[in-house]
Design brief:
Largest sheet: 5 strands, parallel
Strand content: 5-15%
Number of strands: 7
Shape: globular
Radius of gyration: 16 Å
Distance between the termini: 34 Å
Strand order of the largest sheet: 4-3-5-6-7
CATH topology of one domain: Rossmann fold
Structural class: alpha/beta
């Protein structure tokens, strides 16, 4: 086990403390492959190793894009602080709050923006953004809990996408990995901002 944990992006106890692996009582067929077990109280627990692997894949994927080509969307309030700070640190575009359809497809809109990749914190509340992304043919990365469907998503990152701590940790890791891979910070350098800075009070 020791060898495996060393390869994690953050020490295992940091993942566990943030509850990034705690799912819901509902599980969809697609998400079963990421579920490690179901607790006696009925909550599904996600496999930490798969979470970690997918965060690595997501950060590699995002690192291929310039920050201004990335859009992060979070309708869920628990993700607002994390996505805004992610945007501030990396320079990517973010949309926290209700996403009005058409931002990516209708140049007539005030808020119209052109991007090449979309990341959403939850594929259900953020479905308007996903629909827009499909129309313009850009890839979609979505954080998915045990109760999410995976339709129209190019890369699913299994995690607790409802908890403030979980989302804070996810975006902190993603920001760090993105900046490292883009050569903005050294490969072993940490962010100036702490995980707590990414977490809603």
């Amino acid at each position: 086990m020791a060898e495996e944990t060393e390869q994690f992006l953050v020490p295992q106890d940091i993942y566990l403390k943030a509850g990034i692996h705690i799912g819901t009582k509902f599980r969809t067929k697609y998400m079963e492959q990421f579920i490690y077990k179901t607790r006696p109280d009925g909550l599904s627990v996600l496999n930490l190793q798969k979470i970690d692997e997918r965060i690595k894949v997501a950060s590699n994927f995002l690192a291929q894009y310039a920050p201004e080509d990335i859009l992060i969307v979070s309708r869920r309030e628990n993700g607002w602080k994390s996505v805004k700070l992610f945007g501030k640190i990396t320079g990517s575009k973010v949309f926290a709050g209700r996403y009005p359809p058409g931002i990516l497809t209708n140049p007539q809109l005030d808020k119209y923006m052109e991007v090449k990749i979309l990341l959403v914190t939850d594929s259900w509340p953020d479905r308007n953004a996903i629909t827009d992304a499909i129309k313009i043919g850009i890839p979609v990365i979505a954080l998915c809990d045990t109760n999410n469907q995976s339709n129209n998503i190019d890369l699913v990152v299994p995690c607790n996408n409802k908890g403030k701590k979980s989302l804070g940790l996810f975006f902190w890791i993603l920001a760090r990995e993105y900046l490292r891979k883009r050569g903005i910070i050294k490969s072993d350098e940490e962010l100036k901002e702490s995980i707590d800075d990414f977490t809603e009070e």
